[in-house]
Amino acid sequence: MTQLSAVLITKNESSNISDCLKTLTWADEILVLDTGSTDDTISTAEAMGAKVARLESWEGFGKAKQRAVELAGHDWILSIDADERLSPELIEELIALRKRDFEAKAWHIKRRSYYLGKAIRYCGWQNDAPLRLFNRKFGG
Fold first, then answer.
1. Which CATH number describes the domain made up of 4-138?
2. 2 strand-pairing partners
3. Nearest of 132, 67, 128 to residue 94 by alpha carbon
4. Cβ atoms within 10 Å of 86's Cβ, excluding its own
5. Which of 4, 52, 94, 124 has its CA 20 to 30 A from that of 109?
6. Of 47, 29, 26, 45, the residue nearest 37 (C-alpha)
């Protein structure tokens, strides 16, 4: 089965990190790149088995994401935000894709956004599908 690293950028995400990491336990590696947390984000991530690296200087979100990809131990990357969760159905689909060596170089993953506990189904948000799964050998 193809190996995969899940990567995420954090800063003061103690209220989100645990729930996010629980949906990533199937990944071969979880890499958290922290950008200056002063709460329990780092200790929580470490306690849950994530590899934690610290970003020394902030040069923007894009550069931080790229650094996380560089630090990952595997070429296949799942990029996720700390306030996001993978559904059980998506996890099953991702595991099945891994067994088939992913079949493509990159995948867009449909995202469901919520406001005040209700799904946003208008203004284009219902079609949001960012590039989240990719082989870093081919870009990212």
1. 3.90.550.10
2. none
3. 132
4. 21
5. 52
6. 45
